[in-house]
Amino acid sequence: MKTKKIIIALSMMAMAMAPIVAVANDEGDTVPQRIRGTWVVSTTPSLVFTEKLYNNWSAAGNSLISSAFNFDGSYKYTYGSHIVDNIVKLGLGFDMQDLDDNRSLESFRKSSDVIDLSSTYSHKIYDKFNVNAAVNFKTQFIDGWNYAGAGNDDENRTLVSRFMAPGYLITSIGNEYKADYWNVSVSFLSGKTTFVYSQDVIDAGQRYGVDTTDGNRAYFALGTYIKFYFKKDIAKNLNLYAKMELFYDYNKPKHVDWTQWGDPSPYDTYIKQLGKALIHETDVNFELTANYNLTNYCAVTASLNMKYDTDYAGIGSYGHWQLYQTAGLRVFMNFPRKN
């Protein structure tokens, strides 16, 4: 069974990547120079800074220095009715805090960590409607911890993540509507493979939906994948970026106990119960970022990231919802290029 799941995952990945390779390799003597494809490349490395200083402040607070390095890359190839969009998003940040008011920044902790790589091949079939094949990979660079007290001692923290624990690989084949500054894609044939390649993370109680018995470290899910993307200058110097991803695993409803929402009333129908199961078991990832450019190299930025995933064992103030919000000064350099 494990081998079968791996073969299915690799087959879907190969099907998604094959058109990309075919388009990217359309060059040579057989293709006239005048109809060769066009690359549009944009890379944005940036630093985000936040600083707070408290000293004998009546309202209280902890001094803080926070910095994060982000890299956003867009590599778009167009060849006739073929389009390949490659997106790279990397980020790693740290906080240094004075937690005991002794004028020293004794707490050094991770504040952000993301590896998000995606590639989408689209073929126009009519006006703004496309068929597409996509691959997306997500994980993090270094260990992530939940803290229960000051300092970084092991008794004050619990390991919750590590590189490839979890890691996610999504492959999909579907349809897409692509407008000038937004697009939405829907695939009813999508594969999502979850990896947990760390025994320490598993021992800490985080399995991310993977049945780790018998040495299993990966789980393949077949389901529906919906992705919405928006990026536009909505006002002078103000850019807004939004992305929402939804994934529903076809296998999960078989294991859902619908009575967990209470005894059904006489007015509850099968459709209502099914709707509750769909909502409860759909993985959600929502990202929203606003940048207000002060100069060509400096911007005020604010971002929000919300996730819903019942496979994560952590339960917070909002149940299974995960929330990450940040704001600060962003120093960046853009290098757009057209060939």
Explain what this protein looks like in three dimensions:
The chain is mainly β. It has one domain (2-338). It contains 3 helices and 15 strands. It has helices at 2-24, 199-203, 270-281, and strands spanning 38-52, 64-79, 82-97, 107-126, 129-139, 144-147, 157-161, 167-178, 182-195, 218-235, 238-249, 282-295, 298-308, 321-332, 337-338. It has a 12-stranded antiparallel beta barrel with strand order 1-2-3-4-5-8-9-10-11-12-13-14.
In angstroms, what is the radius of gyration? 23 Å
Q: Give the fraction of residues assigned to helices.
A: 10-25%
Quick one: overall form? globular
Rounded mean pLDDT score: 81
Helix count, DSSP H or I runs of 4 or more residues: 3
Please state how the strands of the largest beta sheet are arranged side by side.
1-2-3-4-5-8-9-10-11-12-13-14
Name the descriptors.
twelve-stranded antiparallel barrel; two-stranded antiparallel ribbon; 54% strand; 339 residues; mainly beta
Question: What secondary-structure arrangement, pairings included, does this model have?
Answer:
Layout: H1 2-24, E1 38-52, E2 64-79, E3 82-97, E4 107-126, E5 129-139, E6 144-147, E7 157-161, E8 167-178, E9 182-195, H2 199-203, E10 218-235, E11 238-249, H3 270-281, E12 282-295, E13 298-308, E14 321-332, E15 337-338
Antiparallel strand pairs: 1-2, 1-14, 1-15, 2-3, 3-4, 4-5, 5-8, 6-7, 8-9, 9-10, 10-11, 11-12, 12-13, 13-14
